[in-house]
Amino acid sequence: MRQTERQTDSTPPQPENRGSVVKLEAAPASPWRRFFLVALTLGLIWAVLTDFRLDALAFGVPAVLAGAALVFVLPASSAWRLSPRGALAFALWFAVQSVRGAIDVALRAFDPKLPLRPGFRRYTPALPAGAPRVLFLNTITLLPGTLTAEVSGDTVVVHMLDTRANLEADLNALETRVAAMFALS
Amino acid sequence: MLEFLAAALIGLGTVFFVAGTVGLLRFPDIFCRLHALTKADGLGLALIALGVALLADGAGEVFRIALIWFFVAVAGATCGHLIASYARRVKAEADDD
Fold it and tell me: Do B27 and A45 make contact, defined as CB atoms within 8 angstroms?
């Protein structure tokens, strides 16, 4: 994905005042430190997924090492912080939206008339590159009627099931919520 | 009672999987089909995972189900995006010829 290439333009000035803001990740650490952090996280996930079975490590250790080795290939993500309240609000809103999106597409699929008016629209998000932008792009796909089709530079090409819907308003709302989750506003 | 609720959730999840498949078969092009797969199957999996989690014994199992759901959801959105951008590139190259 394109946005990882522009991690140098980093995060915009952020307010320091909010007491509810948690700093989750420090500025990009050294590659080896990141390697061990990622390996630890992946190892923990593997252990939970396999119910801490020792014989599963035959697959787990190579997979974890290979996954963690990707930090040497991929650029470091820029630092980000999370607002717990924004994240909770986002999770609830996201759950409702993905249910709406699924019901919408299911009704269209079952409808004998097949009510579609598909097409592409462009949109330029104001969100900074990195985690906020990635979350924004991935969430578009689960909103009702929209799908991230292509990312070129700062613009995203969105495929819509019905081009009469108000894309601008929907994506502006999504951006506001992502910004709140990352304590950017 | 819990079994009944779990069965209802799993049944409803199956309906969404069927909807995703119907969309895959009926929708006119690859982009519309991706909508059906990513959205309908995503909710289908979430409902089935919820139903199964109700029947699970132990927090470890519930956590494992949640992890599986999370990874499938992220992979679904990312794969949808990759397939769509590939389809657009192929289409653009075909238009150039």
Answer: no
CA A107 to CA A6: how far, in whole Å? 40
Compute the half-sphere exposure of residue A86: CA atoms within 13 Å on the CB side of its CA: 20
CA geometry: angle A140, B50, A59, nearest 5 deg: 85
Question: What CA–CA distance (Å, rounded) separates A63 from A103?
Answer: 37
Counted domains in chain B = 1
- pTM equals 0.78
Q: What are the chain B neighbours of A106 within 8 Å (beta carbons)?
A: 15-16, 19-20, 23, 40
Beta-carbon contacts of A11 under 8 Å, excluding residues fewer than 6 positions away, are: A78, A79, A80, A128, A130, A184
Task: Say if CB A184 and CB A14 are below 8 A apart.
Answer: yes
Confidence tier at A12 by pLDDT (50, 70, 90): very low
Ranges of each domain in chain A? 29-76, 81-181
Q: What is the span of the domain harbouring residue B59?
A: 2-96
pLDDT of residue A1: 41
Q: Does A55 touch chain B (CB under 8 A)?
A: no
Residue contact A161–B80, C-beta within 8 A: no
**How high is the mean pLDDT of chain A?**
83
Structural contact between residues B84 and A146, judged by C-beta atoms closer than 8 angstroms: no
Burial letters for A137-161: b for 16+ Cβ neighbours within 10 Å, e otherwise? bbbbbbbbbbbbbbbeeeebbbbbb
Q: Do A98 and B40 touch (CB under 8 A)?
A: no
Percent pLDDT > 70 in chain B is 99
Distance CA A103, CA A109 (A): 10
CA–chain centroid gap for A81, Å, is 14
